[in-house]
Specification:
DNA polymerase, domain 1, two-stranded antiparallel ribbon
């Protein structure tokens, strides 16, 4: 159900919906769906075990299910949702970006990043984005459609399979962090994103058994959806893509700010922090001569001080042909110092992936 005042997007007339998939369904719905196919309801748990615990979507591997039932169950509940167009890697193959082609030809991206102490995956929740932020490749491409819950989840399942099978250097591993910071505005695809979080964090075999504390959901500031998200009872981290502390500039950089102003967005974030007990992450792309002035750093520090917050400064990864570029190193250092002077914790993001079209949307745009 849409939230009053929330932005909504209509699927283009004539567009096909993604096929029904196990990951779209709750455990109860899976049992009902399996029963509707003339199979014993307990087969739903077997299918869930194969997909969510073993990452095995090939029916040939389902040896606990009668051979005569496998193809029917696979066709109806585990259809192929997406295929790999290509992988590109950097950082000695520990950062891998994947371009996916969905069932209808739509292109989306995900990125898997392996660090010494953790493995993070950045996933997409929409094909394109309707927020129209001018410095973002995805925003400039516009919105194609929302991803289904299963299309979101399958990015993670594929990544976990790759880690288990040793495709990423460093030996077998398990995902520790998931960030909804790929293509799209997650809270504009609210119902499916919430469903995906439940699939990712429900215990095996109902879901993947990941920790909610390892999940970060990013938003440009859809205030009604932020307030609704606080009511879900999650322990996920909320990341607010702020990019400017003043409404005059943010109206330009993040056009949705014309509906919900900086203080409204921050008030909704503080509410989420209070309810969830989690610190808010403020995402701030530093753009040369646009939002990196000392007075803006001071204003941001005054807005954030004394709150449960951390600022993640992001040196802009410029897109081809864009007038926007990263701040000068000395301006970046001054911005950090100004925030620290207000007692606001701040780090500068490790800019992985620049040599592989690392900015979200660049790889998909290059394929078109």
């Amino acid at each position: 159900m849409p939230v009053p005042g929330e932005l909504t997007f209509v699927t283009p007339r004539g567009a096909k919906k993604p096929p029904r998939h196990l990951a779209d369904l709750t455990p109860a719905e899976r049992r009902e769906a399996v029963g509707g196919l003339g199979e014993k309801p307990f087969r739903a748990k077997q299918l869930s075990q194969h997909y969510f615990a073993r990452y095995a979507d090939d029916p040939a591997a389902w040896t606990d299910i009668p051979a005569g039932s496998r193809e029917k169950l696979a066709a109806e509940l585990l259809p192929e949702l997406m295929s790999v167009v290509r992988h590109i890697s950097c950082d000695d193959d520990t950062t891998r970006k994947t371009l996916w082609r969905l069932f209808d030809g739509t292109l989306v991206e995900s990125v898997l990043m392996r660090y010494p102490d953790r493995v993070t995956m950045c996933i997409s929740s929409q094909a394109g984005c309707g927020m129209n932020c001018p410095f973002c490749a995805t925003g400039q491409a516009g919105l194609t459609r929302n991803l289904s819950t299963a299309e979101i989840v399958h990015q993670i399942v594929a990544g976990m399979r790759s880690l288990r099978d040793g495709e990423i250097p460093g030996g077998a591993a398990r995902l520790s962090n998931i960030v909804f910071m790929g293509m799209g505005e997650p809270l504009a695809n609210y119902r499916r994103v919430v469903g995906a979080i439940r699939r990712l964090t429900d215990p095996e075999p109902d879901g993947l058994g990941l920790s909610q504390r390892g999940v970060t959901v990013s938003t440009v500031g859809l205030v009604p959806a932020m307030l609704r998200f606080a009511d879900e009872g999650f322990k996920c981290r909320l990341a607010v893509s702020l990019h400017a502390p003043d409404d005059e500039l943010r109206d330009t950089l993040v056009p949705v700010n014309t509906r919900w102003k900086v203080r409204e967005v921050l008030d909704a974030a503080w509410h989420y922090a209070e309810v969830s007990g989690r610190r808010i992450s403020i995402e701030y792309a530093l753009i040369k001569d646009i939002n990196d002035q000392a007075w803006r750093a001071d204003l941001l520090g005054r807005l954030l001080k004394s709150h449960r917050v951390h600022v993640n400064l992001i040196p802009l990864n410029p897109t081809p042909g864009s007038k926007w570029t990263a701040s000068r190193p000395e301006d970046e250092r001054a911005f950090v110092a100004a925030l620290e002077a207000h007692g606001v914790p701040v780090t500068v993001r490790d800019t992985r992936g620049q040599e592989i079209d690392g900015a979200c949307g660049q790889l998909a745009a290059s394929e078109v």
